[in-house]
Automatic annotation (TrEMBL):
EC number: 1.1.99.14
Keywords: FAD, Flavoprotein, Oxidoreductase
InterPro entries registered for this protein in UniProt: FAD-bd_PCMH, FAD-bd_PCMH-like_sf, FAD-bd_PCMH_sub2, FAD-linked_Oxase-like_C, Oxid_FAD_bind_N
Protein origin, superkingdom: Bacteria
Listed GO MF terms: FAD binding; glycolate dehydrogenase activity
Enzyme superclass (EC): oxidoreductase
Domain FAD-binding PCMH-type: 2-180
Gene: glcE [H]
PROSITE patterns assigned to the protein according to its UniProt record, in alphabetical order: FAD_PCMH
NCBIfam families recorded: PRK11282.1 (NF008439)
Name of the protein this chain belongs to: Glycolate dehydrogenase, FAD-binding subunit GlcE
Species of origin: Thioalkalivibrio nitratireducens (strain DSM 14787 / UNIQEM 213 / ALEN2)
Length: 360
């Protein structure tokens, strides 16, 4: 399929210009703030540096619906890519959030954020096949895909997912895509949290075609997707009330009342084993990913929240804009590997310095 056949496609390659700017910055020791659509700027620490705008570097460079593979430049609007895929009856299974119309493919990979389907389909990094990356020397290299997968023991393509641009400038990404489900149905069940968790554990051992499960205020919200017969049989078995499928889009984009910015309490995202019992932390809770991702609105002190998450085998991220230390502190051994990786790929510290942690 020729990507330019789609009416929304814009093709613009500025890789050479970006390479020149990166090489000049590295030679001068100039710090760079990699800039895309800015819709996820709240996610991480602020970066002081010269802006390197990649939004003009855009376009779907290759799309093969039969092979379920697409390659796209980093500045391409995420909505544009999704429209191209939908026209062929396909999608990005991990449901990446946009948080605004300016969201780009590069920002999707850099933040590594996934939507409600993540536990059943996989995360962003699971669908990354390869990347083109501008190194600190200003060279554009290709990793993964059909060329080379590992360099010095690192799967560099997948390391870019969630790295927040601290390891290099993503110029292009190749991803696996999947067909849209044949049938879908959403429902709600009135259940207290403990009963909801028990039900999800039971259904997880059975052939129930779940692709989303969220709980809040005594209501368990479910989405069934798959073959028509499977969805119809599970719908009849589970019962419950009809749920507007737009609920999942609003959850993905944080447009539900729980996420309203008018609430002055910090918003926390806890990543935990899905079977973790309710944590003894005061505040309002919203559970996604079948209990593996838990949102908390609370005035409880950060150390106490992070300690509770650590004790449960997970971690906690503060998603309120302007948080001094949004990400969970790294264990010493893990921090050591992060510093070594940063030193290998960005020895002069020019790429988004401090975005993740002060010394990275």
């Amino acid at each position: 399929m020729n990507p330019t056949d789609h009416p929304d496609t814009v093709d613009h390659d500025i890789a050479a210009e970006l390479c020149t700017r990166v090489a000049e910055a590295d030679a001068a020791g100039t710090r760079l703030r990699i800039a895309g659509g800015g819709t996820k700027a709240f996610y991480g620490r602020p970066v002081a540096g010269t802006p390197l705008d990649v939004t003009a570097h855009r376009g779907v460079t290759h799309y093969d619906p039969v092979e379920l593979v697409v390659s796209v430049r980093a500045g391409t609007p995420l909505a544009e890519l999704e429209r191209t895929l939908a026209a062929a009856g396909q999608h990005l299974p991990f449901e990446p959030p946009h948080f605004g119309t300016a969201a780009t493919v590069g920002g999707m990979v850099a933040t590594g954020l996934s939507g409600p389907r993540r536990p059943w389909s996989g995360a962003v990094r699971d669908f990354v096949l390869g990347t083109r990356l501008i190194t600190h020397r200003g060279r554009e290299l290709r990793f993964g895909g059909e060329v080379m997968k590992n360099v010095a023991g690192y799967d560099l393509s997948r390391l870019m997912a969630g790295a927040q641009g601290t390891l290099g400038v993503i110029t292009e990404v190749s991803m696996k895509v999947l067909p849209l489900p044949a049938a879908a149905y959403s429902l709600s069940l009135a259940l207290p949290l403990e009963h909801a968790m028990a039900k999800l554990a039971k259904w997880g051992r059975q052939p129930v075609p779940l692709t989303a499960a969220a709980w809040s205020d005594g209501i368990l919200h479910l989405r069934l997707e798959g073959g028509s017969r499977s969805v119809a049989a599970s719908r009849a078995r589970l019962g419950g009330e009809d749920l507007d499928p737009a609920f999942w889009h609003d959850l993905r984009e944080h447009r539900l009342p729980f996420f309203e910015s008018t609430d002055p309490r910090p918003l926390w995202r806890l990543s935990l084993p899905h079977h973790t019992p309710p944590l003894a932390l005061e505040g309002d809770w919203f559970l996604d990913w079948g209990g593996a991702q838990r949102w908390l609105r609370s005035d409880v002190a950060a150390p106490r929240i992070r300690d509770a998450a650590s004790r449960a085998g997970g971690h906690a991220t503060c998603c309120t804009p302007g948080a001094a230390e949004p990400f969970h502190p790294l264990a010493p051994a893990i921090a050591k590997y992060h510093r070594q990786l940063k030193a290998q790929l960005d020895p002069h510290g020019i790429f988004n310095p401090g975005r993740l942690y002060p010394d990275l």
